[in-house]
């Protein structure tokens, strides 16, 4: 017989009355009462007893004590004193699972973009790259800028670097001032023409952030680099998908800025000349956060299996360095590459931070010792 209804969980069955559930009609549909200790029967309004599952008969006290010991001494993560002693085979297998769980989460946005663009994967890549060119501070703003420009427009204007700069800087509200610089004024004219030509009358709401950024990360420079990338790399999606190594991807993203931005970080303020090419570390971030997730999602959409290919690419990229990775090192867990560091980030942010020890292979191993 199949039952449809709700399941209620308590420490003791008598908690049903402690919480006054017998007075609440929302609990009339309960078909199972799950408790640690069954200390009294619980009845419905029609005097029929609600079936009860008592868990303490199925859990050894030693396991319970292990769990309580595990979760009672948290400093940064619960298992920080035991994680380095986890069986290597179990750890490696869990590492792979974490790596692909992280890709699964990142691919959700990619599939949404693919659906919105009618499976135009060049457009998807454009939005992903824009988001990552903006880093944490300007990522959301850059993403909105990219979404506000139909990629058909980017394709048509990709033969004019000035047009690409005007579109990106204009939609980011960076061309709305009274400038003295002739180059800035020319970009304003180009932007005004392009907005009329393509009916781009809605700028992105908000402002980009310059504060606390090193000059090379100024939004003006990052948008100029993005424009230069699409000016020099036609069919960029094919290039990144067909690159067989991280070194080939370094070549694809080996671009700088236009002549004007070589001597400027912002309008009307000239600086010493610098080519301002994308750094290797910045390209690594693009590969980690945009290219690998895109390859994963695209392969999924094509029903292709590229698991080992993605792992092979990830292990050739040096591990990120951030507070989470550095903290794991304190407890004896060191990341040699992005494959390992991305797995640790997933572990901390989606397991440790939510106390999901019972869903974690590391937690299982420690509890079964």
**How many whole angstroms does the radius of gyration measure?**
27 Å
| Low-confidence region ranges | none
Structural class estimated from helices and strands: mainly alpha
**What share of residues is helical?**
40-55%
Rough outline: elongated
Total count of helical runs of at least 4 residues: 17
First and last CA, distance: 39 Å
DSSP strand tally:
5
Biggest β-sheet description: 3 strands, parallel
Main features:
369 residues; mainly alpha; 3-stranded parallel beta sheet; two-stranded antiparallel ribbon; 53% helix
Fold and architecture overview:
The mean pLDDT is 95. Helices cover 53% and strands 6% of the residues. The protein has a 3-stranded parallel β-sheet with strand order 1-2-3, with no helix packed on it. It has a two-stranded antiparallel ribbon with strand order 4-5. With 369 residues, the protein is mainly α. The chain has helices at residues 15-18, 61-71, 88-116, 121-133, 135-148, 151-157, 161-171, 182-198, 219-232, 236-242, 246-252, 259-262, 280-301, 307-314, 323-330, 338-350, 361-368; strands at residues 6-12, 30-37, 52-54, 264-266, 269-270. The chain is elongated, with a radius of gyration of 27 Å. The chain contains 17 helices and 5 strands.
Write the layout of secondary structure elements.
Elements: E1 6-12, H1 15-18, E2 30-37, E3 52-54, H2 61-71, H3 88-116, H4 121-133, H5 135-148, H6 151-157, H7 161-171, H8 182-198, H9 219-232, H10 236-242, H11 246-252, H12 259-262, E4 264-266, E5 269-270, H13 280-301, H14 307-314, H15 323-330, H16 338-350, H17 361-368
Parallel strand pairs: 1-2, 2-3
Antiparallel strand pairs: 4-5
């Amino acid at each position: 017989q199949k039952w449809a209804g709700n399941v209620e969980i308590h420490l003791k069955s008598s908690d049903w009355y402690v919480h006054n559930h017998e007075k609440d009609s929302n609990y009339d549909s309960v078909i199972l009462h799950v408790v640690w200790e069954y200390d009294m029967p619980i009845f419905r309004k029609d005097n029929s007893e609600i079936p009860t599952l008592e868990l303490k008969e199925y859990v050894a006290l030693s396991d319970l004590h292990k769990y309580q010991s595990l979760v009672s001494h948290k400093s940064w993560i619960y298992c920080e004193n035991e994680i380095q002693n986890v069986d290597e085979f179990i750890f490696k297998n869990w590492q792979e699972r974490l790596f692909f769980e992280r890709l699964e989460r990142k691919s959700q946005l990619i599939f949404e973009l693919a659906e919105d663009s009618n499976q135009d994967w060049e457009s998807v890549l454009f939005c992903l790259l824009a988001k990552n060119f903006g880093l944490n501070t300007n990522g959301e703003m850059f993403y909105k800028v990219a979404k506000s420009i139909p990629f058909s427009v980017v394709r048509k204007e990709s033969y004019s670097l000035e047009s690409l700069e005007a579109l990106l800087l204009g939609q980011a509200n960076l061309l709305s001032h009274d400038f003295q610089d002739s180059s800035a004024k020319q970009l304003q004219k180009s932007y005004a023409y392009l907005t009329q030509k393509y009916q781009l009358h809605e700028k992105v709401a908000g402002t980009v952030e310059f504060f606390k950024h090193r000059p090379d990360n100024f939004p003006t420079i990052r948008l100029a680099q993005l424009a230069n990338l699409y000016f020099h790399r036609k069919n960029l999606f094919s290039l990144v998908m067909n690159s067989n190594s991280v070194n080939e991807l370094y070549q694809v993203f080996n671009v700088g800025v236009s002549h004007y931005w070589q001597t400027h970080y912002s309008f009307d303020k000239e600086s010493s000349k610098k080519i301002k090419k994308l750094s290797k570390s910045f390209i690594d971030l693009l590969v980690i956060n945009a290219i690998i997730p895109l390859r994963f999602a695209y392969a999924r959409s094509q029903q292709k299996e590229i698991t080992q290919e993605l792992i092979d690419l990830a292990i050739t990229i040096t591990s990120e360095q951030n507070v989470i990775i550095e903290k794991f090192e304190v407890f004896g867990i060191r990341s040699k590459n992005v494959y390992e560091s991305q797995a640790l980030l997933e572990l901390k942010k989606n397991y440790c931070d939510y106390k999901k020890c019972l869903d974690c292979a590391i937690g299982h191993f420690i509890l079964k010792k």
